[in-house]
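Aim 2 progress. For Ribonuclease 3, the working sequence is reproduced below.
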Amino acid sequence: MSKPSAKPRKLPKPDPRRVRAGEELQRHLGHSFQNPRLLEQALTHRSYSAQNNERFEFVGDAILDYSVAKMLFDAFPGYSEGELSRLRANLVNQDVLAEIARSMGVGDALYLGVGELKSGGFDRPSILADAVEALLAAISFDADFAAAEQTVRRLFARRIANIDLSNQGKDPKTLLQEALQARRLPLPKYRIEHQSGEGCDARFDIACDLGELGHITRAQAASRRAAEQAAAKEALDWLQEQHPLPGKNKKQRKARS
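Predicted structure tokens for this construct:
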């Protein structure tokens, strides 16, 4: 005698807001999922279900690393392995991935447990970055590797085109840190002065405090990272103007005159 079949699990009624967010997300990714379950799993945090996106992250991380490496390899044929690795490190990191996720509204489409949701998990950089990697894996499963690679190109093409090679691809926060260290000064401290909105509507007011120099710069952006980078750029410009290194001040001032 066969066992009676288990009753099918009653699925919760789809949340219209999350459905819209998922549709908008697919538009940003440039991929329409044939298997919506893959998209759902890529957006499911471990706090929500045992069938979550952690294994997807493993595959997505590899896709992302290879795809960005290939883009940089093609874009900068004269660069050494070390230079290319440095450029990639400035592009493939939690802050950048979280910024990309926010620009696509990933936070609004996530499946999070109640506790994670209440603690602001929808905007936590680690969760957003992991979701981006998981989405790349989901695209490769839904279609193929080429489709996932094309999505990476879609998301990173402008960032690679805008790399400031005069600074060896280093971002303003890194340059500010190096400039302060060269002057034997303490590292800057960043703090959020105001935060409003969620997802695509988020706004961060960030202050960059140069401590004993008594100077603070401020910036606003749609992500914490972008605001910190903007504030760091302002601080770096001020530092180089007001506290130039010996031997560089004359050249810099002549160039500006």
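The radius of gyration is 22 Å. This observation will guide construct design in the next reporting period.
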